[in-house]
Amino acid sequence: MGGDALLQYRFDSVDQLARHLHPYGDASLLFVRDEAAQIHAGRILLELQLRLPRATTTSRAHVIARSAAPLAGAWIQMDSRLSRHLQRRGPLTARRERRVGTSQMLQLCGPSEMVVELVDVSRSGARVRGVGALVGVQELYTLRLFGCKRMDGDLGTARVVHVNDKESGLRFTEPGNPRLQAFLAKVESAWTSARHVEHARNCCIYGPPVEPVAPRIRTLN
């Protein structure tokens, strides 16, 4: 999971989530209430959850500023992929199985070789992000955890099922691979201790979110 702190933020609906995302060029800002000051500055792995439809999406982000009472909380900056998705393609899709977010790096070996970020993973597939998307749908790759011994980090083979900008989706050819299952169990275990925040019931009953003034954004690495 790397050194990123883990944070889950749950909303009732996709419209509620969209109201809280503030796009600024290639970035988006999100305010999270945090009266106990448990969300600290630095890198985080943010899982946004919806009740209806029951869906999740994960983003690597940064906590860039905090605000004090009466609206104590943290401002989180992420890239604008989610905002663009909601604007162009509508709601998030409910899935039959949960995709678990991670910041692990992967080595892909196949028609080409590259190191990519493993964005999220489930028992049947994975989403990866790199400098450029994988080129060929249906191409077959071997997935290995970067920096691990070959046998320990071998997650098996997966086929490219879709390509979107710098992200690609893959489907495992052998979902029962014991090393894949062990890695998934480890990632799921890490999320059980994540900081969890529920959207405040009194936040946007009458329209826009109740938030402090947004800080200036900075370039994400």
Give the gist of this structure:
With 221 residues, this protein is of the alpha+beta class. It is built from four helices and 14 strands.
What keyword list fits this structure?
221 residues; alpha+beta; Thrombin, subunit H; seven-stranded mixed β-sheet; 15% helix
Report on the architecture of this protein.
This protein is an alpha+beta fold and 221 residues long. 15% of the residues lie in helices and 44% in strands. It folds into 2 domains: 95 residues, Thrombin, subunit H (Beta Barrel), CATH 2.40.10; 76 residues, predicted glycosyltransferase like domains (Thrombin, subunit H, Beta Barrel), CATH 2.40.10. The strands form 2 sheets. A 7-stranded mixed sheet has the order 2-3-6-5-4-1-14, covered by helices on one side. The radius of gyration is 18 Å and the shape is elongated. The protein starts with a strand and ends in a 23-residue tail after the last strand.
Question: Which secondary structure elements does this structure contain, and how are they paired or packed?
Answer:
Elements: E1 5-13, H1 14-20, E2 22-24, E3 27-33, E4 42-52, E5 55-67, E6 73-79, H2 81-89, E7 100-101, E8 105-109, E9 113-121, E10 125-129, E11 140-145, H3 150-153, E12 154-164, E13 167-172, H4 178-191, E14 195-198
Parallel strand pairs: 1-4, 1-14
Antiparallel strand pairs: 2-3, 3-6, 4-5, 5-6, 7-9, 8-9, 8-11, 9-10, 10-13, 11-12, 12-13
